[in-house]
Amino acid sequence: MSALATFKATLQDRVDGLCLLCLGWFMAALARSGLYWYFLNPKFSPLTLGAGVLLCLTGLGLLLRPMPGRASTMRLWRQAALLAFLSLAATAWGQAANEPLPGALNPAASENAALAPEDEAPVDLRPVRDGKDYVRLNLAELYIMLDKGRTDYPERFALRAVVSRTPQLDGRGHVLLKRTAVVCCLADSMELSFVTRGQGLGDLKSGDWVEVFGHLTPLASKGEDKGLVKAAPKGEGPSLSLTNPKFRIEAEAVVPIKGPDFPYLFEFREQAPFAW
Amino acid sequence: MDQSAFAIFAAIVTSIVLEAAPFLLLGSLLSSVIAVYVGDEALARLGQKSLPAQIGLGLCAGLLLPTCECGVVPVTRRLIKKGVPAGAAIPFMLAAPVVNPVSLAATWVAFQGDLSMVAGRVALVVLPAAALGWALGAIKGPDLLRPTLEMAHEAHAEGCGCGCGHDHSRGRKRPGLAQGLLEVLRGTGREFLDMGLFLIIGSCAAGLFKVFLPQEWLSLVSANLWLAVPAMMLLAVLMSICSEADAFVAASLSMFPRPALLAFLALGPMLDLKLIPALASVFQRRVALVLIIAPAVGVYMLAMSLGLAGVFK
């Protein structure tokens, strides 16, 4: 068989190998990039990197040591699907790269913002403010404890969140404080939120990052609280929106901050020291 | 689809594929290792055991071969082609994504050490899996797998392009280490591409549903058991979350009654938008239909029975 005939006979394996090599490279590159968190929990990046490397090896196996095989519709379909996925993924990566980071969402607010607490080292996980003791935790940690019916959550706490406002909530003297929690990937992410009222919230805009010092009070099922949670806006993003139906945050102090490096929450602890 | 919706769709599809790809690759690797190194005789000997023994082995095999639903179909296909009887392979495929150490631990952690949720989840998976193993156990491999499936590598690597469902590598001399490694790598790549097509199709479908599914309906249906159970089953299929992560999502949906959460946890690993095209492509049409419909019916009946009996509040 001539070299050209051999090349033609093994072309399908070589194309398969090239597809795998492209996907493997993409996975490895994304795992090593600073944008991995946009798609998956960063704790999985070694797994993605390992899978990317293994895919590259399988691709090289097919590319360098191909076997003769015939072209088939199924084969073309799977090659086309993989290339279409890679185009889609590259688009998503590009969008993630161009998306402004939380600290840059509201430049005007950021100018006056205090340093994000993680910029101060070491972080005081039990801050004292106006003579009151607080425990720093993240919004998802508080939400999960309440969701499980726990009663040993900190009486006073400090948490970071994004502000969301709507005319309906404004009219009832509340704003929504929310964070997006990611267990594995963006597809299973949840936008957890609390209705919140108190001093210092009036001047904030939707999208502002704040650290709120406060405590919880139960929401009544009737009276002025009736329908309050239903008035909370549902997210328009990829996450499942859940507003705590039983408690509200009473803000005692509100400090504007720059957003954290990763706007999503990836770690949740159910006892001190919290992941915050 | 406007630009914002397309951006969300692209990000969701990318994240689902990236999340599932390592597990699919692991499944493909396992399948390839079985194809190259595991002797047919050892697995075919399973066929000499009684059907209940086959079912029991299939149900428990996930504890030794941990795999999630992303990778279980190629492993099952390989096992059947190697001569593993349907009575063991089908229960393994349906149960292994849940009856494995990682998934069981995740459920235990997500539900704060609530063993009744772990046991309930296992029961809702094991019972339909065993029943299907019993019902389909007598079918032989070639009648189980789709003959028209043109898995490209079967056209050459195993010496035959007939696509008949038989493993024509039987009797072949076992390769040396270097040659075997190369065969494993090539087989893994081809297997991954074969099943990756269906992962991408399923992820696109799940992405579309995530973008367009109105969230308000969740709170509307959660108060009524008759609506909550099918709603959570539908959600499990549409969201297509990995069986090793779905417990955390279920735990967050605490407004739903527990039988509905169990239905979500049990059905997702057996049937979701990634699995449906994979099952339809690998199995004969009638078998695939049974594998798609029967687990859903079984889980619905079991979850409703638990709910109506008041076993799980």
Oligomer: heterodimer
Number of helical segments with 4 or more residues of chain B: 15
Helix-strand sequence of chain B = HHHHHHHHHHHHHHH
Structural class of chain A comes to alpha/beta
Describe this structure in words.
The complex is a heterodimer of chains A (276) and B (313). Chain A is an alpha/beta fold. In chain A, 34% of the residues lie in helices and 21% in strands. Chain A has a 5-stranded mixed barrel with strand order 4-5-6-9-7. Chain A is elongated. Chain B is built from 15 helices and no strands. In chain B, helix 4 packs parallel to helix 14 (275-282), helix 5 (86-95) packs antiparallel against helix 7 (115-136) and helix 9 (177-212) crosses helix 14 (275-282). The radius of gyration of chain B is 20 Å and the shape is globular. The termini of chain B are far apart. Chains A and B meet through helix 2, helix 3, helix 4 and strand 8 of A and helix 1, helix 9, helix 10 and helix 12 of B.
Notable characteristics:
heterodimer, A: 276 residues, alpha/beta, five-stranded mixed barrel, two-stranded antiparallel sheet, 10 strands, 34% helix, B: 313 residues, mainly alpha
Summarize, please.
By secondary structure, chain A is α/β, with parallel strands linked by helices. In chain A, 34% of the residues lie in helices and 21% in strands.
